[in-house]
Amino acid sequence: MCGIVGYVGREAACPLLMDCLRRLEYRGYDSAGLSVLNGDLQTYKAAGSIDNLAEVLPEEIEGNIGIGHTRWATHGIPNDVNAHPHCSSEIVVVHNGIIENYLKLKEWLEEQGYEFVSDTDTEVIAHLVHFYSNSLDLFEAVRKSMAMLEGSYAIAVMSKNNPDTLIAARKDSPLIVGLGDNAFFTSSDATAFVAHTRDVIFVDDREIVKITPEKVEFYDMEGQLLEKQVSTIDWDVEMAEKSGYAHFMLKEIHEQTRSLQKTFAGKLSELEGNVQLPELKLTDDHLRNIGRVEIIACGTSWNAGLFGKYLLESLAGMHTDVSAASEFRYRDPVMDCNTLTIAITQSGETADTLAAIRNVVQYESSTIAITNVVGSTITREAENVVYTHAGPEIGVAATKTFTAQLIVLYMLAIYMGRRRNYLLPDEGKDVIKALRELPGHVQQVLNQRDIIRKHAAQYADRRDYYFIGRGLNYPAALEAALKLKEISYIHAEGYAAGELKHGPLALLENGTPVVAIVTKNRTYEKMLSNIKEVKARGAEVIAVADQGDREIGKYADIVIPVPATNPLLSPVLSSVALQLLAYYTALEKGCEIDKPRNLAKSVTVE
Amino acid sequence: MKAIVLAAGEGVRCTPLTNTRSKVMLPVANRPILEYVISALVDNGIEEVVLVVGYEKEKVMNYFGDGNDFGAMITYVDQTSQLGTAHAINQAIPALGEDNGSFLVLNGDNIIEKETISKLIADHAGDATVLTTPRETVCGYGVVMSAAGKVKGIFEKPKRQISHMINTGIYAFNRDIIAEIENTEISGRGEYEITRTLQNMVKKDRDVRVTVTKNLWMDSVYAWDLLDINARLLANCGSNFSDTSVIDDSATLIGNVEIGDNTVIRAGSYIVGPVKIGDNCDIGPQVTILPSTSIGNNVSLGPFSDIQNSILMDNVRVESHSHISESIIGFNCNLGPYSICEADNDVNIEIENELVSVEKSGVVIGDDCKFGSRTLTEAGTLVGNNCSVRSGTKVDRHLPANSTVL
Known about the structure:
Chain A is α/β, with parallel strands linked by helices and 606 residues long. Chain A is built from 18 helices and 27 strands.
């Protein structure tokens, strides 16, 4: 997981590259570097954040062409030497992805007399290109090298011998070219340069881009010139700035009142009790024949997937399994053309999820992708795409994109249920009414931020935290635990409350906080017994319960009320309340909330 | 030129609407009051704006973000304790940056237009300029006495009618008066007030001038004043339907009606402009909307309901056969079938131990209220946020927040 950028134009490259890198910092931040070409090749790198790189840069660097990189370590520890760009005499390379056959290539290159200085897989690309550039021009050398490389990569390459050319290429890692006024950008993510241009061309797998100050050309692996289409990015990078909030995460939590509306805008029809999803190209026949749904996702998206399982089962009567993409791709799944695969990935670039969805093609399973990023790789891999429309999310811990994924899953379940004649119009209407009320209810949860903050501070010093729930509140408990551990580094576990007796009860000590999500549903009474169980073992219970629930105060130490709504929808409200709990806990502990240690926003490596 | 906009105060007299958001965020013609201020600045070429926020600041920051959607560049300054205007300005000055040019100070809770401040910007000279506007009755306002374009004195809410020129709270300052602001002493009301700063400057014979505007400058003293302002602003509304809206062929739309994205107007609905309807609304079938009504985003109106001269904020839900007149319904309210919000002439409304007489008024309902079916809310009633009213009941007095009517 890294971010790469490249610039070719008339302005000084260095400040523009630094600006782009800062905007890409969310992709990784344990080292950074850049190279600028001005007759000579000047390379600077530093371990740590982009600010550390800024410190080692001289006042002014001449040159109108350059590449940069922000890194999240996969091979080799994060230090100056392992930071990109990597050089081989006059060649410099930045790379995002993993070269799988790098050890083999490294041995071979060492036999050819190349000396390796870093522990990274990227260095083989630099030497390989250099090896070929002895007899070929830079473009041909990169093309030739690509044939040798196995794995995933998006690369940008420059050579001292070609002072006005930048070559970029991709396979299984994102790469985008931006077309500015007399300037060309390339990057892993349009966020990097969208302040300078919104006209972009998406680079596809196994394509090579040749950028000079005059023009940009796209080639395939055979060296044939390609015609490419220009797209326009419709969101603002400025939206991605913090606008008054202390952290992106807090901003994004608060944005949920609006982002949820955007997710369902124009799709709900309350009078008909139905949902319109014209983007799905599934025939009635096919829908009726679907015997099983396989949801594939990672991390927070997986938790959303588990919601999806409960929803598709209860609203659409569809047998649903949820798989972690990293497991699914190495399993021998049993599926056929009557299996529907739903892949959930916020970035649309999650490597494991992409690999998994490529795998299902062989079973002729139809596919739906749920993603937040328009034009991301998964949108080209899946037959159908439903966008979450939550806007860019910068905080590493997913918040608004998680709730947006849930909304899409509610809509999908209602849509399937109605088209398969499983869900009655009136039942659909009830859920849709509650969906429309959701933004207002989320606002009511946010209004309680000060109370939640107080409770968070009270327990911030604890070593462990447990989250329990039943039914749809179980995935909500899993997600709440994930949020807390991601940003506050407190050991946190989510459990199905009925599973407590089968092990986790042994872990409870005096004063261990247990968060019980106990909004009204058919398991309410059972949850009360579970709360008594943990209380009896000395745990302190923080209950998330419906507003107006008088019962719960008798059992719990602390009650965080959320507005009472349709039981199917209340886990969304509990999730928002517990996002705030995680945020304020991390704040109390002084953690780096937007950039938790060892984590990156989207995981584009296996 | 840059500008400091004061948006930290609560606006207690606009209760119950300000229980959950600051006055600057109250919507009129579907835009918060503060947006009119920002737009007026941007239209005058002032894009760099420092917003002083405090009370319910998240709602301000969520709406305006970094200002990009509004053509502005907004920096936020958090005034954690509201100690008066001079204190707020003093806190905001570092955010103006290094340049030493003059700057504007405005209140975020007055409705203005581009022309209101263009003369002030053009005419500003001397150390400070105060923008005034003539009013027949100056009761409740600060009053400015001047001679030959120079300020002679500023008086907070005088008992006697000493001048017709009221202080709009809009000023242009030179950067070198910063010391004066810093040295402002605390007033009798326990606040650091910028009017005191100006008084001090006048006493010291600094060059404090006055400029008059006769353009739009409106203040919502009480919550129900929003209806007048709303009607006035809607008078400029155009006729504009979003491409993504769906309007049934049998619906009748007369006059200027604006309809937002993804909004559905169902069969048989009858809408007479000026009316503004936001995004994602579900209207009808058979709904009547009469002038001058603003309906926010994600609102649904059930069959046979009838709305006139009212403001319905975001996420409001009105079930069938309801009647709402001269009323303001806060965010996320839910009104059951046959809910009546009654209107009457010459209503006396008691607020903060004062009796205020209002020519024509309906009801004001705060956020998150839930009304059952067949409820009647009498004219002049204020309902606090998060109240719950059972079916078949009558609300004939003010309800404090979180009340339940059984």
